[in-house]
């Protein structure tokens, strides 16, 4: 008996998270925020807050500034002066209110730009210090909404291109209609499909995607799915890589 070939192991390789401002795709949901981000000299008092739900790219924006980045829960004491400015991500999760108040005051005294990132507008943050509440209410706040279909489609295509994974446009459109409308869900879906395609040694079809994503919270079946489609369906022809 001829020994069978050893099964090839697939190693999931994490892709680096881009911090390039050019990689941040624009649509109606974030256009106003991007316009403010790109003109820090316009920020009233040198301070701006950007807020929105999880998965809309706030942390990507924070890193794309190229400024000193502080995670809100880790804020303690007074930081040293920073070139350009300071970004406080998860600013609404700061554990020490007085540290946030000192940071706001310090940046104002030094003439440094300060960008606050959170899920709610600063005026809604539940703070106890009156001085801090006053400064937060005075901070210009710009919201980012849920992305539209065009942005979701472009973002999913970019995740596939980054992984050099060929997925037909009609399959991508099918996925966008069923995936959670969050950037993080699209990235996770691309990673799962990449692994599934490597294991199956087959292109990403609807059938393969349905099997790979079944049971995951970020994926929901559509009412128009063809129930007769199975993993034994003929593979789709290859399409050019999305570059």
Give an overview in words.
Pfam families: Hda_lid (PF22688). The chain contains 8 helices and 5 strands, in the order H-E-H-E-E-H-E-H-E-H-H-H-H. The chain is of the alpha/beta class and 243 residues long. It has 2 domains: 27-143, P-loop containing nucleotide triphosphate hydrolases (Rossmann fold), CATH 3.40.50.300; 148-243. Strands 2-3-4-1-5 form a 5-stranded parallel beta sheet, sandwiched between helices. Helix 5 (149-162) crosses helix 7 and helix 7 (183-200) crosses helix 8.
Layout of helices and strands:
Layout: H1 31-37, E1 47-51, H2 58-64, E2 68-71, E3 85-89, H3 97-110, E4 113-118, H4 130-137, E5 140-143, H5 149-162, H6 169-176, H7 183-200, H8 206-213
Parallel strand pairs: 1-4, 1-5, 2-3, 3-4
Distance between the termini: 45 Å
Helix proportion = 25-40%
Mean pLDDT: 82
Give me the Rg, rounded.
Answer: 22 Å
As a percent range, the share of strand residues is 5-15%
Shape: elongated
Strand tally, please?
Answer: 5
Q: What is the CATH class designation of the largest domain? A: Alpha Beta
* Domains, number: 2
Biggest β-sheet strands, sense, barrel: 5 strands, parallel
Give the neighbour order of strands across the main sheet.
2-3-4-1-5
Short description:
This is AAA+ ATPase domain-containing protein. The chain is α/β, with parallel strands linked by helices.
What structural keywords apply?
2 domains; five-stranded parallel beta sheet; 243 residues; Rossmann fold; disordered C terminus; disordered N terminus
């Amino acid at each position: 008996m001829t020994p069978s070939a050893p099964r090839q192991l697939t190693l999931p390789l994490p892709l680096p998270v881009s911090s390039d401002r050019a990689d941040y795709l624009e649509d109606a949901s974030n256009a106003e925020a991007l316009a403010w981000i790109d003109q820090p000299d316009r920020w009233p008092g040198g301070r701006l807050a950007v807020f929105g739900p999880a998965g809309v790219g706030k942390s990507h924006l924070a890193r794309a500034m190229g400024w000193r980045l502080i995670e809100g829960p880790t804020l303690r004491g007074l930081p040293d002066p920073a070139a350009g400015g300071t970004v406080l991500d998860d600013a609404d999760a700061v554990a020490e209110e007085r540290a946030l108040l000192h940071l706001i005051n310090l940046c104002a005294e030094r003439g440094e730009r300060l960008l606050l990132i959170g899920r709610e507008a600063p005026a809604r943050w539940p703070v106890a210090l009156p001085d801090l509440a006053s400064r937060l209410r005075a901070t210009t706040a710009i919201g980012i909404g849920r992305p539209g279909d065009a942005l979701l489609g472009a973002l999913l295509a970019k995740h596939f291109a980054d992984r050099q994974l060929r997925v037909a446009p009609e399959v991508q459109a099918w996925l966008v209609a069923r995936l959670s409308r969050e950037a993080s869900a699209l990235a996770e879906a691309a990673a799962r499909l990449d692994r599934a395609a490597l294991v199956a040694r087959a292109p990403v079809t609807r059938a393969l995607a349905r099997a790979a994503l079944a049971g995951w919270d970020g994926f929901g079946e559509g009412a128009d799915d063809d129930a007769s489609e199975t993993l034994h369906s003929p593979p789709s022809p290859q399409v050019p890589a999305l570059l």
